[in-house]
Amino acid sequence: MAKLIIGIDVGGTKVAGGLVTLKGQLVKSQVVPTHADKGFKTSYGQIEYLIERLVKLAGGKDNVVGIGICAPGPLNPKAGIVINPPNLPGWRNIRLASLLENHFHLPAKVENDANAAGLAEVLFGAAVGYRDVFYVTVSTGVGTGVIINKKIYHGKNGVGGEGGHVSIDFRSPYRCGCGTLGCIEALAAGPAMARRARVALEQEHNKPSLLRELSGGDLRKIDPVMIQQAARRGDEVAKFIIDETGFFLGAWLGGMMSLFDPEAIIIGGGVAQIGKPLFDKIRQTMPSYTINRRFVAELPILPAKLQKNVGIFGAASVFLPSGEEAGAAA
Amino acid sequence: MAKLIIGIDVGGTKVAGGLVTLKGQLVKSQVVPTHADKGFKTSYGQIEYLIERLVKLAGGKDNVVGIGICAPGPLNPKAGIVINPPNLPGWRNIRLASLLENHFHLPAKVENDANAAGLAEVLFGAAVGYRDVFYVTVSTGVGTGVIINKKIYHGKNGVGGEGGHVSIDFRSPYRCGCGTLGCIEALAAGPAMARRARVALEQEHNKPSLLRELSGGDLRKIDPVMIQQAARRGDEVAKFIIDETGFFLGAWLGGMMSLFDPEAIIIGGGVAQIGKPLFDKIRQTMPSYTINRRFVAELPILPAKLQKNVGIFGAASVFLPSGEEAGAAA
What we know:
Two copies of one chain form a homodimer. Helix content of chain A is 35%, strand content 19%. Chain A has ten helices and twelve strands. Chain A has helices spanning 40-57, 96-104, 113-124, 184-188, 190-203, 210-214, 224-232, 236-260, 276-285, 310-317, and strands at 4-10, 14-21, 26-33, 64-71, 75-76, 81-82, 108-112, 133-138, 142-148, 151-152, 264-268, 301-303. In chain A, a hairpin with a 3-residue loop joins strand 1 (4-10) and strand 2 (14-21). Chain A starts with a strand and ends in a 13-residue tail after the last helix. The interface between A and B is large, with 47 and 47 residues.
């Protein structure tokens, strides 16, 4: 049997795991509930249980190269420590990599989910063929991964690559959960889109909008999916919100172009599903916010390719540090 | 005789050159006028002439490892091309590295001045002992160098590492020479400091300030040196301008901390001479503009060490790509 990597994606409600080949093919996958509310011991137990099942499915430990785990931050990938993820109550400075290595006698690595997803796109997804890539995922937050020479850039404490928390509006009244005023997550992620739509509709009480219908009249219920639906049906307010989101992302990515001059920018996450109107606005805005404007036209700005199992692929990716063996797949 | 590197710093008024040992000691230096106004042929001739003299001083070509040249951007270090520096009229897409290699039969490399200065600080200056460093020089512009694993980060087209052109104020009315609205160069470099001081004094006609005296009553003549002098003598407007500069730099460096989580930040250039009041404000501001706030307190934020000959050291540095042979010096 070919060598396999166990990729584990730890979320607040479920833990997804899979067996991934060195060529980037997912051959088996399994899901168990996290039982996060029952605290560390239970949720850690679920992870161990899932890995045990995957080791069996792999035909035993000898067929497994290692265990890659991705989880939401904050975490320290260099030390394999999960610091205190908001969605895993009771987890505090858990040496997850060591715990699993001691239990399974297999190498284990822990990685931040956006970093892992970025690497997975480079190894198996939209960025195959590129080495220096800026990866973005826009959903309830803005996560990024800086991939340099096909490796995740970590920084001194393992907390680098957090481009979602770079401010483009130092005067902004919007403070991100991270504490930064006006970082791109505070302006452009799903909740910020919903807030902007609500405010736009509150400012003009009489303005008709499909968003009033879709939210059942309760503007607090507006979400990015409604905005996308309304925009597709021609709603002006929804189209404006998407345009503004593209503008914010473009102004911010202009700065990333000045800093990284990457081979490609990959954009994933739920908000990226909006597609062409969003990507067009990003591309149109970037040249006004970078010294490297003359290279924007030829810069590939691509939608992410890995969707459903991006967490499993991402977790597995960290076990292909050079990425040399990997090819396009998924 | 020990092996030497020729380091050449091409400026608009003079070309400075020196012989630098592999340990980072400057053993000889020479300066010639650029004669930039006489066009490419003359100014290129001055560079060749200076290198010829340095080769002789080195005791012949056999003692020279290579020729490193730093110049203001835009340039492409990967291809060794100087694109079109504003202060070198007539230079347009000049293959400077190839020209010198063909003439001298020695390896030659061209580098952007801020990148080179950053590398020099890592190899010979304030950042000796660190591998991942964010270098900033604040003077008439804001130049930066991203040093990763003791190497300059270049990006795909050789134009990465331009952190001075990341916007922290997308709504700003101030457009940088690079075209970006509200990039840190447009807000915090010397000319922006002078502009802010002038506006502050125009807004309050009756407010006394040493800056009125120092500028001889012509507020357009205010420069960063006057602001620093006035602040030292307790002038309130001048102190406010410095404080605001530190705030802008801190908000921006907070974003750089989120992205790079560097081992150290080095700040050079004329504006950095302001010293403690500026550095204190930067350190005080950064935590409010980064997700990595818990690591700011222990982050070294150091003044640059190389002053007078930073261009020569920078140019020579690009010939020590690994930096392994270099030690503290200068």
